[in-house]
Amino acid sequence: MRTALVLFQLLLTCSAVCLAQSLPSSDWKAKVAAAMPLLGHRNWILIVDSAYPLQTSPGVETIETNAGQLEVVASVLHSIDSSIHVRPLIFMDAELPFVADEDAMGASAYRAQIGKLLHGYGVESVPHEKMLADVDEAGEHFHILVLKTDMTIPYTSVFIRLDCKYWSAEQERRLRAKMASGSNSAQ
């Protein structure tokens, strides 16, 4: 009986190991590439640290990348920049500049690296709790793609709200002004 129990446990263990090895690993780059043509203005892509909460809003999809934060940010920005239809509006946690290396080893190095990576993009600092609330609210109506990384420094999330690449805020303002004035001329 004891031998049968040991053999049964061994069989269960081998089955679990084989099943885990046969499951495909999450290919986050392929998922981003597949999602990009579907995403538009008002959708979000978040690149977050490993402790970012799993949100329950219906439009929020979370993918574990098992990759570094900077690698994921660079890849996502490349995908957005290569698209014909969207551009990034980037937000970061307002708390990050205040995270000391003595409290989170590597915070200063990360700030320097992410600063270089985001050079040329406008980045708005927003308190973390406000960003969570904004994303949660947006997830009620729009798709939010959350890419979790192996980052272990707090307040390092990069929140990207997509906007229309071929229609600017200034063009929208002019359109609304024409509509308000009753002028339907497309001159």
Notes on the protein architecture:
With 187 residues, the chain is an alpha/beta fold. The chain has a single domain (26-181), classed as RbsD-like domain (RbsD-like fold, 3-Layer(aba) Sandwich). 42% of the residues lie in helices and 18% in strands. The protein is built from six helices and six strands. The chain has helices at residues 2-22, 28-35, 69-82, 107-117, 128-138, 169-181, and strands spanning 44-48, 60-64, 86-93, 123-126, 144-148, 158-164. It has a six-stranded mixed beta sheet, sandwiched between helices. Strand 3 (86-93), helix 4 and strand 4 form a beta-alpha-beta unit. The relative contact order is 0.23. Residues 4-8 and 10-25 have low confidence and may be disordered.
List the helices and strands and how they pair.
Blueprint: H1 2-22, H2 28-35, E1 44-48, E2 60-64, H3 69-82, E3 86-93, H4 107-117, E4 123-126, H5 128-138, E5 144-148, E6 158-164, H6 169-181
Parallel strand pairs: 1-5, 2-5, 3-4
Antiparallel strand pairs: 1-6, 3-6
